[in-house]
Specification:
- It contains 7 helices and 9 strands.
- With 272 residues, it is of the alpha/beta class.
- It has a 5-stranded mixed beta sheet.
- Strand 6, helix 6 and strand 7 form a beta-alpha-beta unit.
- The two termini are 15 Å apart.
- The relative contact order is 0.15.
C-alpha cells in the first residue's frame, strides 16, 4: 500500500474545477464528461494527511498523559510527599544523589522517546491490527530493561516499589489510552470520516477478491474504495457495485490527481 500526496488536476481534465478558500475541490457537474464519475471527485485536497496528523497528535497527548500519571502515582505510592533520593556511587565524587522527582522527569522523557523510536505512532500501523499495541509493549519493556541494566552497572538501587509500579501501571494506561483513541477513530470511520481513499490497480479478478476482503472488514479497515484501474480499463462495467472502473494502467497518475486518491492498492497482474 503506497500513499501519495496529490497535487493539481491535469489541464485536460474533462470538467471545470477550482479550489475554494478552504482548499476544497469544487466541480461543475454540468460540464463533467469522460469516465470518472463526478461524485468520486468530491474530496478535500490533502484531507488524508490532515486527519492522520491530527490523530497522531491525539495519540501523543494520550501517551504523555498515561506516562506522566503512571510515574507520578508510582512516586507517590513509593515515597509519599517526602523528598527521596537515588544514590549513585562514583569513584571520583563518592556517592552522587539525585532526587526522585528528577528521576521521574527523566523517566517520562525516556519513555516517550522510546515510544517514538519504536514508531508506535507510525501512520501505517495506527488504528488497526495488533502491531500498534505490540510496539507499545516492546518499547516499554526495552526501556525498563535498559534502565535495570544501567542501575546494575552503576551499582545503584532504584526503588523496587517505584520501578515495579511504574512499569505495569504505565503500560496498562498506555494500552487503555490507545484503545480509547482507536474506538474514537472507529466511530469516526463509521460516519465516513478519517478514511484512506484507495485506488485499486491490477488484474480485474484479483481486484474483485481484494474488494470483497475490504468490504467484509467494513469501516474497521479505514479504507474507502473510490475506483479501480484494470488492464483494459472497461468503464462500462463496475468492478463491483459502487466501485467503478476508472481507466487502465496508463491512467494511474491522472486518476490519482483527478480523484484525490491517497492510497494505491496493487492487487497483482502479470503485466505490471
Amino acid at each position: 500500500m503506497v500513499s501519495f500526496r496529490t497535487g493539481h488536476l491535469p489541464d485536460t481534465f474533462p470538467c471545470q474545477y477550482w479550489l475554494d478558500e478552504e482548499g476544497h475541490l469544487a466541480i461543475d457537474d454540468s460540464t463533467a464528461s469522460g469516465s470518472i464519475p463526478a461524485n468520486v471527485l468530491r474530496h478535500p485536497v490533502g484531507m488524508s494527511q490532515r486527519w492522520q496528523r491530527r490523530f497522531t497528535r491525539r495519540l501523543f497527548l494520550s501517551d504523555v498523559a498515561a506516562v506522566i500519571l503512571a510515574v507520578a502515582v508510582s512516586q507517590y505510592l513509593s515515597f509519599g510527599t517526602q523528598r527521596s533520593e537515588l544514590y549513585i556511587p562514583t569513584a571520583e565524587l563518592g556517592t552522587f544523589a539525585i532526587g526522585y522527582s528528577a528521576v521521574s522527569v527523566g523517566l517520562v522523557a525516556l519513555w516517550l522517546l522510546s515510544l517514538s523510536i519504536a514508531a508506535t505512532r507510525d501512520e501505517k500501523i495506527v488504528g488497526s491490527g495488533a502491531t500498534e499495541y505490540r510496539r507499545v509493549v516492546d518499547a516499554t519493556f526495552r526501556l525498563f530493561g535498559l534502565v535495570a541494566i544501567a542501575m546494575f552497572l552503576l551499582k545503584s538501587e532504584l526503588g523496587r516499589g517505584y520501578f515495579l509500579t511504574a512499569l505495569p501501571l504505565g503500560l496498562l494506561l498506555l494500552l487503555i489510552g490507545r484503545w480509547i483513541q482507536r474506538s474514537w477513530l472507529m466511530s469516526q470511520r463509521r460516519d465516513g470520516k478519517h478514511v484512506y481513499r484507495a485506488l485499486l490497480v491490477g488484474n480485474r479478478k484479483k481486484s474483485e477478491h481484494v474488494v470483497q476482503s475490504i468490504l467484509r472488514d467494513g469501516s474497521s479497515s479505514g479504507i474507502t474504495l473510490i475506483g479501480a484501474l484494470t488492464k483494459h480499463g472497461s468503464t462500462d462495467t463496475p468492478l463491483v457495485e459502487q466501485v467503478p472502473v476508472l481507466g487502465d494502467y496508463s491512467d494511474v497518475l491522472s486518476t490519482i490527481d483527478a480523484t484525490g486518491a491517497d492510497t494505491l492498492i496493487f492487487t497483482g497482474a502479470d503485466d505490471l
